[in-house]
Amino acid sequence: MTRSTANMFSPEDSNPNNFLSLPLNKSSLANSKTILLPVPYDGTASYKSGSRDAPAALIKASHQLEDYDLELQCQPSDLGIHTAYELPVDVSSPDAMVSKIESAVHHYLTFNKLVGIIGGEHTITVGAVAAMARKYPDLSVVIFDAHADMRNTYQESRFSHACVTRRVAEICPAVVLGTRSLSLEESDAIAKTENPRVFFSSDGSLPAWQDISTLISPNVYISIDLDILDPSIMSAVGTPEPGGVMWHSLLPLLKTLIWNRHIVGFDITELNPNQGAESCVYTAAKLAYKIIGYSTILSS
After folding, report:
1. C-alpha to C-alpha distances, 177 to 28, 144, 149, 168, 213, nearest whole angstrom
2. 227 and 267 in contact (C-beta within 8 Å)?
3. Is the pTM of this model over 0.85?
4. How many domains, the chain?
């Protein structure tokens, strides 16, 4: 058994290369309100592979973040962030990897903490949501994504990154925000269903909270594909799409969502460190910290 596999069942072991480079008193499982699980998987990447390198790059970039959050006027890290060891990748098939992620997330949920997953490609969301739905029967998922991801299969797999939203919607209700690219197949599928509800964006805008609030249950999982952001600030993704959301448009809706709902988990996906400036990796780390801050401080 490798150390990383053993850690899945002994998460009290502290990872020295942790998010924000926190000392033990702020990174042990016992002292943390948040658990971060790095998943370096990009087995179904169809354009630019490399998101397998994202968890390590994001954690490294986080070492340069200030712990103090100017907006929240505190240090969310004081509530503790435990970084688990990377989940070993199962290369046998995408569905096998999804099952492995589900098992790992299910395990970490037993500690009753906020669980965040650092991808990796967007396929990781399916396993995480499957685990979350087992614990929270009223779960709904809010997905921020430039792409609809509503294909039933892609490249002969039901668990491709291009099928994520469709698989998630088979588990629980989903709302997709900021979509600006899709296929004819996906357009037809969306027109025939009420789940997921997809809010398109042609100008980089997101819907108002009151337009989506009735679609979102009390317990929410947030999934962020970083291509939701405009390539001018986030070019380091596998499938960049022009006309995206800007930083100061994304954060207010995230904050309102988290303020009004119980966030049980989240993920950051599709960061491809080799496809953009170092600032993109730093931005991804900052976004992860903002979600942790909103989720732990606003609910405490």
Report:
1. 34, 5, 12, 14, 12
2. no
3. yes
4. 1
Structure tokens at 135: 């614990």
Three-state secondary structure call for residue 259? helix
Once rounded to an integer, what is the mean pLDDT over residues 187-206?
96
Mean pLDDT, range 229-254, rounded to an integer: 96
For the segment 75-99, the average pLDDT, to the nearest whole number, is 94
For 65, the domain range is 3-297
SS3 label, residue 83: strand
Alpha carbon distance 284, 117 (integer Å): 13
Of 41, 85, 83, 33, the closest CA to residue 62 belongs to 83
275: domain CATH number is: 3.40.800.10
Instruction: Give yes or no for residue 300 having a pLDDT over 90.
Output: no
The residue type at 5: T
Q: In which element (H, E) is residue 117 found?
A: strand 114-119
Place of tokens 């594909």: 225
Q: Is the dihedral of CA 294, 14, 17, 132 positive or negative?
A: negative
Amino acid symbol at 258: I
